[in-house]
Fold this sequence. Notes:
Elements lengths: L1 H27 L2 E2 L4 E8 L6 E4 L5 E4 L3 E5 L5 E6 L5 E7 L2 E6 L2 E6 L4 E6 L11 E6 L2 E6 L28 E2 L4 E2 L4 E2 L13 E2 L8 E6 L4 E7 L4 E6 L5 E5 L16 E4 L11 E2 L2 E2 L28 E2 L6 E7 L9 E6 L4 E5 L5 E6 L6 E7 L2 E6 L4 E7 L10 H29 L1
Antiparallel strand pairs: 1-28, 2-31, 3-4, 4-5, 5-6, 7-8, 8-9, 9-10, 11-12, 12-17, 13-16, 14-15, 17-18, 19-20, 20-21, 21-24, 22-23, 25-26, 26-27, 27-28, 29-30, 30-31
Helix pairs in contact: 1-2
Amino acid sequence: MKRFLKFLIISIIIVVLAFAVFKLSNEYRMNTLKNNVSWSVVYKNCKDSVAFEKDENQNTYIAYNNYIKVIKIDGREETLLEDKSLEIENLLYYNNKLYFISKTDLYEYDLASKSLKSILGNIPSEGKYLDRNLIIKDSKLLLAIGSATNSGIASNDSEYSQNKIPYDKSSIDVTLNGFNYGEKKTGAFMPYGNSSEGGQKIKAQSIANSCIIEVNLNNDKTSLYASGIRNVKGWDLDSEGNLIGIVGGMENIGDRPINRDFDYLYKLDKGKWYGWPDFSGGDPISSPRFKGEKLVSPLIANPPNKIVQAPIYQYPEVSAIRYLAIDKDGKILEKNSNVYFNSKENLIAGINSESVVYDLLKLKDKSKIQGIKYSDGDIYILDSGMGCIYKLQSNNFGLKFNLPKPIWIFIFVFLFILTCLIIFKFYTKHSYKK
């Protein structure tokens, strides 16, 4: 009897431990939606983070609202920078330095000297569509600055007091058509309530909205890389060095609502004007495609060009797609496939060069994706809500049973207890015979 009680207690402990492991595994468990693609948790303790980055040695830098920490490749963690006056967004590593935006400034943090300095100020920082992103291309830092307004007209949506409603600053010289909108008759590129006139000229500002700024890191001087881009919601370089970005479409809201617009995947080239606020997806805003109660009139009388570049791909929704990493080596999907976050469906998806879309990973309800990065052949995803970083990986390792980890744990525990019972019965039976 004592032997049986001892065996029973051990079995209960094993089962409890098995369910504890099951619960721990189930905490992060998500459904993969494409054969031969799986995921794993590579880092934890990232809850409430806002951005992340990896260096050439696979050290991981994680940014929070007012501090940055590093998780070294051996697992050690260290806080690099902490300043309660900061409001960090974005994070970029280049040449042993970290770059990030806080409020109206672009900062550089030298990892060797542990010094912090602002290298660019007066960056637009207000507006509902003001996505701001950083990337390195051809040894230059590119800063994308989104629009302050939905479609070029400052509108009162009760988020700001009327005298502080953000409006767009133009990155190029433009002449206005003089169309005004809303109860206050507000004009393009004008403060809320200020009307425009036909032929009125708007001077370009060096740091403006709906554009990409190029920063020479040797002397911190800036130049205009591209303009007329409503907002870059995510971007990356493909294997050939092309800059590919997700550009958000205009919404059917505000004093100049735009119907039937979408999000887009664009190749972003230096020196080009992409048409915002008078074009979207390569189509003029006066097209019947965007018509509401009446056709939408263009705001700019002297557009830099009458035909603008079309996107690589048009998504079926607007304000749904963000963050982007390109599988440059094709280790997970086809080479140069784009991996992104679909906020409407709450999943990670991909699209290849043939415009075939794959659903890859269904996220949990409390997931909050804050970034997707390509690094050394792998795709990493920061989930601030779950407090971890996932890694997408290929399952092309030959024939195997594709069962979830908790099921394997249950099978192992069940077989172990069954084996113990058989041994126990055999031992008891032979003890009685003696």
